[in-house]
Amino acid sequence: HSACSFSVTYPAINSRCNSPNLHGLCSTLTKAKVRSVHTRLLRASPEDHSDDEGVSTATSAVEPSSVEEKNSDMSQAKIISDFCIGTNTFWRKLVIEPVRKYVEIRPGGTAPSDALSKLMAPPEVPGIPRPVWLTILGSVPTALGWYGYYKFSVEEELYQYELQNDKDGKVTGCGGYGTLFPFVYAVIIGFPLSLLDIPLGETILKAAGFWILLGQVNLYRRVNELCEEARDELEITEPPLYEWWALLPPPIDVVVGLRQVHFLSEYWRIKRSEPYDRDIIAEELFPFISTKQRFTLKEFFRTPRMWFWFTKDWDDFEFEFLKDSA
Question: For residue 107, which of 26, 30, 224, 270 sits 20 to 30 Å off, Cα-Cα?
Answer without folding.
Answer: 224
